[in-house]
Recover the amino acids of this structure.
């Protein structure tokens, strides 16, 4: 109790100290993050943070300085050592609402690391999210462009509420291994932003270290940041860091392991040992190591004796003069053999001369799925920064091998059903390769035409995130496939931040047409779905193509786009809505699209005899609601007689009783 009272007093004292921040202020020019004298104990007490400078988190997204108050005050402290980036966050909040089973959003914060390549913003970023679910602290990593966030299992995190429940402490340590393009011993500059979300009774307030009005973790858009300088202290103990010069190479490129050694005394007679694991076997090497007092930056060449495209793993060990292991680290890199990919091109050209390509439309239309992955890997090698996420390129390479095996057997280059995958197609307009995401349901049978649900992303997210969000809710325990089995398709468009007009609208139509060429789609039972700008795009496409779609779902849709966006006002197109099945889900506190606009549109649709239903969510903004239960109940009713519920194959049904025994 005494600790809680003392901590609350310190927060109130901080309020007084920072009261001048209520006035307009310029953004700070930069941070100085000082190396820790010893490792922090991540326990949520902050006793060992007393000497670290406090940094107020005080800006709204638009750049307004928010005065500290009992409603919300956020103060951060930063530090680091050779293994971890450390952060302590003190939050004064009169109403703390963490996410739980009944509330998807809640209090928590995002920590963004940005490679400082541009002056104030960069596309090269890595985002961590921190909150609490029940009594368990949650740490996730969110890479822009991925399907969704993933647990950051090696992050140390403690979250402590004070006894009154009106303040919370976050303390965490992020291993440097999560940030492949930065090590403070090699370079001392990194971009940082921190965004704290405070949810009170359905309303969200956001404060940031650096104002970023377009900030969204799922967005691939450039992230704004504050430049941070990492200040090294005197070497008190022996410390190491290591880094490759890049993480993707061609065979002719120079591949180097860099080793930073900070030592309080010179040493000699040591060794660096490396084990390189390749698709063709292991290679071991060793080199002598000696270093001086202070900072030493050393480089060691990495030799790849046998060339093979794929992921290579490099294990490093530093051995002292007595044979003791003093430091270990593991690195990964991707190697591309140009000759192997040239052979793929020749093989594809031969395949296109064969009988299956000429006579089998499914086989022919499946080949772009293979071709687009070859293109992605080549683009990755040519356009990616020296350090890039390797998970995608690793999967593309595995996909290529699997798809070629199918093609060699005369089968279409398609993936098994029940998986969220990306298919490729060639645009009939210009022959360019494009892709889209699709989920083919389990037990799919070519003989049974299935309905199709097309979902359009909300502007900042790409199509994979839109697909993942919809599919995870549909197959979740609450909905449980209420509307039967159907294809789910998410198109990739030219401008995901746009309004699904022009070329982007054409992409949507092309993906639907392509899917119908390779799978059995019930073209009389296609439903459009969209969130935010995607909701606008879904309704616009339905109105432009009357009679084409069985229904349209608009979630938090922006019906009146900004004046200079170039997109039509949906209100001017509603005359085409007669006999359309339309579901609109909207929060009455949505700031991006006021509920009054939606109500006017619904009133007009009812006048026009459209079959429209409005679900108005009280107290909700654009995201903080869960109405999937209602959405998929409406979808089931709309599909009507075209609804399909697939059954497992007969052999699988016969095996199920045996499993129960």
């Amino acid at each position: 109790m005494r600790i809680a009272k003392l901590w609350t007093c310190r927060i109130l004292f901080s309020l007084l100290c920072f009261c001048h921040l209520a006035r307009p202020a310029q953004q700070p020019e930069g941070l100085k993050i000082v190396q820790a004298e010893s490792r922090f104990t991540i326990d949520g007490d902050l006793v060992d943070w007393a000497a670290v400078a406090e940094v107020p988190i005080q800006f709204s997204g638009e750049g307004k300085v928010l005065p500290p108050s009992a409603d919300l005050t956020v103060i951060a402290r930063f530090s680091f050592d050779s293994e971890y980036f450390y952060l302590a966050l003190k939050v004064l909040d009169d109403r703390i609402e963490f996410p739980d089973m009944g509330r998807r959003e809640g209090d928590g914060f995002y920590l963004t690391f940005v490679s400082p390549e541009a002056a104030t913003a960069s596309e090269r970023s890595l985002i961590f999210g921190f909150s609490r679910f029940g009594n368990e602290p949650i740490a996730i990593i969110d890479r822009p462009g991925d399907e969704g966030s993933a647990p950051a299992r090696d992050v140390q995190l403690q979250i402590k509420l004070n006894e009154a429940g009106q303040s919370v402490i976050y303390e965490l340590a992020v291993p440097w291994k999560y940030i492949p393009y930065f090590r403070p011993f090699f370079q001392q500059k990194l971009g940082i932003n921190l965004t704290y979300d405070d949810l009170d009774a359905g309303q969200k307030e956001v404060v940031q270290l650096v104002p970023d009005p377009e900030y969204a973790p799922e967005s691939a858009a450039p992230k704004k940041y504050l430049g941070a300088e990492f200040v090294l202290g005197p070497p008190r103990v022996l410390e190491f860091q290591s880094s490759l010069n890049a993480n993707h190479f061609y065979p002719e490129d120079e591949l180097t392991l860099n080793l930073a050694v900070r030592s309080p005394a010179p040493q000699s007679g040591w060794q660096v040992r490396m084990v390189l694991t390749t698709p063709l076997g292991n290679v071991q090497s060793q080199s002598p190591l000696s270093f001086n007092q202070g900072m030493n930056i050393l480089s060691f060449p990495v030799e790849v004796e046998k060339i093979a495209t794929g992921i290579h793993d490099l294990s490093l060990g530093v051995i002292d003069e007595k044979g003791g292991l003093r430091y270990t680290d593991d690195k990964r890199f991707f190697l591309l053999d140009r000759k192997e990919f040239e052979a793929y091109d020749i093989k594809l050209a031969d395949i296109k001369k064969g009988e299956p390509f000429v006579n089998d439309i499914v086989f022919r239309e499946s080949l772009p799925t293979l071709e687009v992955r070859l293109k992605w890997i080549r683009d990755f090698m040519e356009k990616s920064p020296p350090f890039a996420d390797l998970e995608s390129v690793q999967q593309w390479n595995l996909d290529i091998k699997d798809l070629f095996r199918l093609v060699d057997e005369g089968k279409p280059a398609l993936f098994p059903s029940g998986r969220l995958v990306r298919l490729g197609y060639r645009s009939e307009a210009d022959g360019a390769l494009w892709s889209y995401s699709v989920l083919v349901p389990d037990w799919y049978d070519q003989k049974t035409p299935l309905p199709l649900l097309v979902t359009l992303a909300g502007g900042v997210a790409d199509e994979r995130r839109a697909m993942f969000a919809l599919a995870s809710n549909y197959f979740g325990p609450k909905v449980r496939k209420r509307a039967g089995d159907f294809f789910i398709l998410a198109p990739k468009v030219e401008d995901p931040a746009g309004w699904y007009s022009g070329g982007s609208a054409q992409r949507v139509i092309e993906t639907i047409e392509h899917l119908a060429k390779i799978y059995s789609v019930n073209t009389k039972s296609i439903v459009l779905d969209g969130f935010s700008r995607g909701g606008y795009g879904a309704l616009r496409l339905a109105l432009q193509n009357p009679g084409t779609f069985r229904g349209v779902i608009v979630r938090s849709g922006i019906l009146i786009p900004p004046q200079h966006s170039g997109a039509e006002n949906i209100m001017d197109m509603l005359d085409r809505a007669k006999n359309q099945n339309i579901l609109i889900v909207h929060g009455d506190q949505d700031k991006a699209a006021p509920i009054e606009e939606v109500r006017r549109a619904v009133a007009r649709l009812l006048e026009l005899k459209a079959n429209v239903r409005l679900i108005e969510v009280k107290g909700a903004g654009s995201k903080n609601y869960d109405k999937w239960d209602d959405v998929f109940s409406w979808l089931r009713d709309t599909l009507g007689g075209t609804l399909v519920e697939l059954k497992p194959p007969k052999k699988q049904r016969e095996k199920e009783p045996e499993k129960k025994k």
Observations:
- The radius of gyration is 28 Å.
- Residues 179 and 204 are 29 Å apart (CA to CA).
- The longest strand covers residues 189-200.
- The chain is about 25% helix and 35% strand.
